[in-house]
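RECORD TYPE: protein structure
NAME: N-acetylglucosamine-6-phosphate deacetylase
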Amino acid sequence: MSITVFEGASIFDGDRLHATSTLVVEDGTVVDILPPDEAPLGPRVLLKGGTLAPGFIDLQVNGGGGILLNNAPSVAGIRTICETHARLGTLGLLPTLITDAPETTRAAIAAGVAAAAEGVPGFLGLHLEGPHLDPRRKGTHDPKLIRPMTAEDLAVLEDAARRLPALLVTLAPEAADVGQIAALTAAGAIVSLGHSDASAEVAAAGFAAGAGVVTHLFNAMSQFASRAPGLVGATLAAEGVRAGLIADGVHVDPLAIRVALAAKSAPDTIFLVTDAMAVAGTDAMSFTLNGRTISRRDGRLTLADGTLAGADIDMAASLRVLTRDVGLTLGQALRMATVAPALALGRPDLGRLSAGSAADLVHLDTDLCLTGVWRGGVPL
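PREDICTED:
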């Protein structure tokens, strides 16, 4: 039995902030949150103010550490992505495959199954973003590789959903019918609508068929207008539908974030994603996707024509945008990076610091800069 006491910081447990408290960890598991004078004896981790919180959870991570999953659909590639983002405070994630050829999709699925079997730390499952999208809302996805879902595609995805710890599939309802959406949901996949020019009515039919998530709200989708509410309007109006959001100050204006949070008033229905690319955790200024160069400049990742190609931000920086520019409290922002994505994944056991939960921790200073990361109570 090994007890460690974290002290000297406020603690966010997933539900609320505990003013200057101690977190008691035993053998990698949270025991309790206690006032300083009630903490048991044991080794101390002395924190200099700031906030101790659950490790971040990110459901859209295309790459990091110099690689993209598309370019390295292997256990080694998944491990590199997970290790890179762990150092940035994200201790649970879905490596994300952007639209690619069928053989690359199959390789990524096989790698995900193997990574789960090997217990790669931080690997929670896969996110397949495409190829069944609407080319009118392609974003950075290669239009030559976008295509409607076939019966064979559906069978591959159903099998993957049964074999992976979790499978999130982003599709456009124009490229996959309601029967296919229902079949994927029945197989255990989490279906997310995205890269879509669907009307609000078509989107609502997708939700009714089982799609319960929307990919990077506002981006690469039909927008809200007074007589054509689009996928944005359908998402904001739909009860129980959750949405990922990139809070980098580039993809979505802070005012639009405030409006979305006001419209989706049910708790935890909007969660943070980074949409991180290969440059995450590196100083690299460019990388390639499907043979096209993506450049990094001034907090943006773009193709040569200026199209946004993922985001150049990590979770801690996203928290700074939410608190500084959007006006959220620290607790509200932290919940969007921990509990909310865990619930979208169907994992209420993650993203919290409560008795019995894994001691996966991050420490943020008063400026919300990351100063420490622990997996199972062990520093990284």
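COMMENT: The longest helix spans residues 102-118.
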